[in-house]
Specification:
two-stranded parallel sheet; mainly alpha; homohexamer; 295 residues; 3 strands
Chain lengths: 295, 295, 295, 295, 295, 295
């Protein structure tokens, strides 16, 4: 079970200007093979499916806890997409003005036809996320190698989306994901090292570029955010620190566990888009509707 | 963001005996078009994508809060599948004994080849859940009608899986889902009623059979579980009660909001399956491995 | 069985100018989840699959009859796409002039590579229509709620495509579909009302915008086209009027059944596109070919 | 546009006994790559998309007319599936008796969970029919070769399903399809011969087995059903006989056009399945419901 | 088994300038339904699956040998895509310069996010090649008709891509494929003629345009490349000449078998793209890395 | 380009008895996410897409050379499937005997309906292999980690199929694949070690079971087959030995390169299946057909 906190892990700046194609590109980080839906669902399913939990508790705690953090990441990527799509067509209530006319050339038409200019669980080509992206073999070592690879692949995608979309909303979001995804890379490397003795951390960074090259990531790493494993639970996953400890393989700083999560920031309010009847409040019905709510 | 609680909403009894085909059928309730992955992700995405939140806060709170409850449902269905698959092949470490031989006739071969006899985000035919199952139009009334329909379709599937799998693990799980899914049906009906004045609740029950016919559901309804909306958050979604109130459309009992969630039960431990090297602990390495954990 | 009538329900004006991306957008109304292929095949399959037909004849007749009308809709949308693609590349027979060069940027490349600048059963992203879009649960009430939702979702898509494509061919087509789809929305609402007593019509319009706002729809509604159920059969589906009767939920006009269908209009002839060898008549072979036809 | 006739082209005998796996196999003939959905939609789309219709009218008429006949084939296959599924689980209204228990081993679980023991647009593996199965290149010769190949592939599938399912319902249905599909094979061969002079008919039969080997087909061919092209229209497609003429390539009989279609047979009534709440008539509500119908 | 030869069948000129959308269009010839992956895998699987090989050896040899040639075609199409993508973004190592910014509008975003500006097994819409494109019925005549149709469909696609992309890299590649694909068309026509006596060659050309209209193909045909079947094996497939003989159906030239394959040309070296960390050599590590290679 | 050698890498014993479900399970090793189609196409595409080849030649040679070996593996798995399906239905030419009747319960109906009792590029659930299984990021380190993971995942699948199918045909095939796949695991581990200095080999074996436990693998390893990299080319990929050298990480034996490939064994002849008209030789036509071949 979960308790939801209606907060985002960081504060997202407003975009410089709406951009359907920027939003379309960022979809890769939500519903692509290496998007946040994939990290969320892989670790979530692996935690449900964990065999021999008692003998391997620290690994269970690690995977289950990272899964919990990923929920905030699908949230963050979705809001970045939503902000970039807000205002991306002409506002108004008269369909004969063809308010979506410019959007006929947008790469992802579903943002305008299926959704109300908001995120969908699709990749950058508009193809749906699928359960086939989940790997849960039951063999712990193999699952950990998968997770290590998945996070590295995700990192490559984040870097390339960063290079493609220079809007500050996107960069702030990707910078944060690079740091936190980096924590997960190190976590799975550490887990493999603990399990086998192989010095997996020596493979890093993958791809061959340091987070410090991304100003939005660098400023967070300077605050130490790359070496903290937050515990996303009040009472559980307490043995995560048996894996998450020792020096960070890239800069040698000490890996630490924090027993609480950051306060977070209220998610941005998304303006109405009347040309999409979104949300479709009929002003004349407001009074009647308010009356019914109070009943 | 979320906090995970390592508990299931109910206590699952052990199956009478493992059954790959029972597990395969239950997959429909996890990864099918009307499975819990669908309810979870539909409401989750709709909550991220909500436009005009301030004006429509009670509806936002309702959708976001139900989304949070659904997480516990994918968890519960997954554990039911896992229990039914545990012990479903011959235990041992010698592959030449063909420990999976009987499973060559199982309907879902991926339970044995891809996963370690555990759940995957697939439906009862072994087809993956897909992001195309998410509907998020941005028009509140349309999204609510979708959600109402989705929950009714999900109810039909639950009933049929109940009729197909008579193992107590499955029945206990489905009975619970019928009750809680019933809450969501009523919630979306109430939301539509509040928004439009149409008496949507008069359509119930859909399909045309009462929850009381299912003993595992009936016992929970007798405790009132069908009229409680739990708030799955410490500080948020507080206006859910502006929609969730009044008499239950089927039995007239009073709809109430509870500000906390039930305590829950520890998830069952899943036995090791050595023939699948799941989780694959090499006993000879235990000492060395323990040493590394402590480092 | 069916008898085909080589007529379209309305006369389509020629487009102002060809437009691959306009055509690509309109594909959503053909092969999208809420496109006309979906309405056609949902009601068609539900009519084949109807259990207890004798007891529930008026509902069977309603669904089967609406299914028949939908055939004319896939035809109409296809011709609109075809007209918008006709002339969309440079005509000629010399491939070295790169007659499709401009089309390399078109959103749906399959219009030029797979088809001869004509419609395909794809959505606006070029993804195929799939049988998974068909819902046929066997429970009448649930199927009717599905159909009601499907038509409302289809209406949302039609409105948004109208707002995206301002070409008169598209607008005339969408205006007609809004009216006739509106008939189907009311029909399924009436069916649910008859079956349960719930005043489903009070939910309308969904989304929250009236057909009168669309001039091409308004002119048809002024002729009463929104209150007529045509019977698409010579001898069958005669009890459709037991459901389709009473006042229209939006304007109170009387719902009536007509025992014949409108005369219709000859479908537009589609010009040859020699650069696509479509249809590929070799002028030198015409005589020989004519001779063979007469044999 | 179409007019529906509520008749099947032949009378289907009742199955000897229900059989989920027989029904699952027959699905290939409905929603498989070479199923009747494919022949229906290929020719339908090609007829909408036909360029240069006036110059090539006989070919247009041929394709459009065959498309119309295929509608009766999806109907026939669907009813065969429905008959084989009717009674395939235990009838009753008490879910605790697990009325679907035996069906947990059925190859297509969706017949019991998603549908009310009826057909779905899926293949024999439960995979959906998809719009990608439609070929419509715009080049007439290429489209005709495709159609010729499609019909031969469909014939192979029909033969193999015949060999797999020996129930009389299935055999009667397949025997009929072999004959009428055979007409389409010859029609496309003739069209190619007319267009190019190549003696395509000499390739037949494909696969290398004669329809006479199938008693249910042989009896129909003895009545000449393999040499008749019915015109599925009151007023249109009148030049089909310019292609459909001359001797049948396999037995030399004269190919003829009939201007009307056979009378057909009322489709079988499908019994209620109360355990699936299909259709879900609540007996206690019959009076109230009848009253509403009359309003 | 195979032996690889690190050569391409022709020399590819450098593109005039990189072009993401040209590359995206060419993907249809790699991973589309009628792309080279399809011809490769169809004939490959048919050769593995051939029943009665001894009685039908020449046909086996033909299919198996053509399969081998197709490998060089997926290679050639891939390199054409790769050349058109090389240099398609701004080179450099500083992500803050947004080196992929222009590519946010590219039709296939996966070229920049998933791959390192290189080919993927996708079609022109970015949809993956799938095993469902393989037809292997086991009936020789039917498989040959499929192959004949597949090659004709592939020819149509090649022609249209030629007309869409006028870059010399693409034209040289397509010109070659038209000639060699033309050989395969004739080969399957001959096989059908040998098997049945039908004069299938008389259907050609399909579509109705001669290879001579494409200068890059014409020059190769003038060298006779359209009448040579190369034997892609040292010791096997020696009876291919029993099918491949007689006059070419289009120009009457003599069909001949060559027992060796052309020498070929070294594949172009693909420049590094540092902004994609492709391949990601860290210059500072070169010495250490070289040392390890020598160990 | 390639030269095909009509030999299999090992000699496959005849199955003890045909088994459709055994064949269906083995399909996972052909067309599953971790099947041989995946290893073949991943390394093949990566070799086409390699950037900076000159600087990184030994890695290019390694990947390209392993790709070549994989071709023999799809061949071997296909033949194993084919042998297990040969004779799996009743032989004969009279369809009324329902020769496929038993096969209506087979897990993969396409083996009998679509193919002539032979392999298809599908997984064990009958789902097609797809190009989405190919990973080719352009970053060498990331591609190598992917390949290492892919081979480990493939190993897990092989082991489980071995445990599921105890037929000697399957076991001989899987035993061989375990050894040769083991070579590829070590090769990618070595490549990563050379590139980064990380001792990746220390992670092995993954999953946690030694090849020695599989008698069919053990006998090959005793011959040293696990330490040989064959060079699948006459003249190319000569620097593969700069990566493939040093001690084997599991048993310390010396890794060696062989400049030729093993002689191999003639592939088994597959008997005709007349009930499937496979291959469909009409005995009466043999003379005429032979005459045409000689022309």
């Amino acid at each position: 079970m979960i308790l939801r906190i209606d907060k985002l892990p960081i504060e997202l700046p407003k975009p410089k200007h709406p951009s359907p194609n920027n939003a379309a590109a960022i979809q890769e980080l939500l519903g692509g093979k290496f998007g946040e839906m994939s990290t969320l669902m892989n670790y979530t399913m692996q935690s449900f499916n964990f065999r021999g939990r008692n003998q391997m508790r620290p690994y269970y705690d690690l995977i289950a806890n990272i899964a919990a953090e990923e929920y905030g990441h699908i949230e963050l990527v979705s809001y970045a997409i939503n902000l970039l799509l807000t205002g991306a067509s002409k506002r108004g209530t008269d369909p004969t003005t063809a308010p979506l006319k410019e959007n006929v050339d947008a790469r992802n038409s579903l943002h305008f036809i299926s959704s109300g200019q908001t995120a969908l669980p699709l990749d950058s080509q508009g193809r749906p996320w699928t359960g086939d992206y989940v790997f849960s073999s039951g063999n712990l070592k193999l699952d950990l190698i998968h997770n290590f690879f998945l996070e590295c692949g995700a990192r490559a995608n984040k870097i390339r989306v960063y290079e493609m979309v220079d809007d500050p909303t996107a960069r702030e979001m990707v910078g944060f994901l690079l740091v936190r995804g980096g924590v997960h890379i190190v976590a799975y490397a550490r887990a493999l090292e603990k399990l086998t003795g192989a010095n997996v951390g020596k493979l890093l960074p993958i791809p061959d570029i340091n987070n410090k090259k991304f100003p939005e990531a660098r400023k967070l790493e300077e605050k130490g955010l790359h070496r903290i494993m937050f515990r996303f639970s009040v009472d559980d996953y307490k043995r995560v620190g048996e894996v998450w400890n020792g020096p960070h393989p890239e800069d040698g700083s000490e890996l630490i566990v924090e027993d609480a999560i950051p306060a977070g920031f209220a998610p941005p309010d998304l303006d109405e888009e009347p040309q999409l009847t979104s949300p479709g409040i009929d002003p004349e019905m407001v009074a009647e509707f308010a009356a019914r709510l109070s009943r």
